[in-house]
Amino acid sequence: MTHSPLIRAVIFDMDGVLADSEPLINEAAIAMFAERGLTVQPDDFLPFVGAGEERYVGGVAEKYGYPLDVPAAKRRTYEIYLDLVPAKLQAFPGVHDLIRACRQAGLRVAVASGADAIKVAANLQKIGLPPETWDVVLTGESVTRNKPAPDIFLLAAEKLGVAANECVVVEDAVNGVRAAKAAGMRCVAVAHTFPAERLQEADVVRDTIALVSVSDLAASSIE
User: Is 13 a catalytic residue?
Assistant: First the structure.
């Protein structure tokens, strides 16, 4: 048995972890492409989940060989998305309880999302966890390289004032799990967006965030 360092901070991805937003951004991106006369499929976006919206829409455009003004397309996708948020966006059950338990355990908490600040702020506000309730909030605009690069998680550790190996990441996406492991961090994955078998690079996989415990996050040893 190899003992791991004491976990001092938990870094949460946002989309698909805290908020059930993946179906909404998918709907918004499909609508954006439809406005441009291109019919795309929901599953076209899966390889790009967690990598930020520029890659999310740009990757699908590349798949279809469609010339796309990616920044303009991202802006339009966000416009459609933000119209959906008030009526449709919900926190996943168990999110508030887990964050409360983390605080009670003395863990620092951060959000590190590949999305732009406008989306992060809208999501966190809607689910009752506004930016000011976190120790650190980072967005895709905080780094040059988005997930699966480890940059955003390493920056989160720096901002939190802890070492990378003292952090655990909660992720839902393959790109996010890979980013966490590349950062040298423990990772707990939730199978909200991808099936559990796609997330096996994580240290722990749970079907939902409601099933994640503080002991999952801060396990003192790994086999």
Answer: yes
15 is catalytic: yes
| Active-site option among 13, 151, 172, 203 | 13
Enumerate the domain spans of the chain: 2-20+90-222, 22-88
What topology is assigned to 2-20+90-222 in CATH? Rossmann fold (3.40.50)
pLDDT (tens place) for every residue of the chain, 223 residues total: 445 569 999 999 999 999 999 999 999 999 999 999 999 999 999 999 878 888 999 999 999 999 999 999 999 999 999 999 999 999 999 999 999 999 999 999 999 999 999 999 999 999 999 999 999 999 999 999 989 999 999 999 999 999 999 999 999 999 999 999 999 999 999 999 999 999 999 999 999 999 999 999 987 533 3
Pick from 105, 80, 63, 66: which is nearest to 24 by CA? Answer: 80
For the 22-88 domain, the top CATH level (class) is mainly alpha
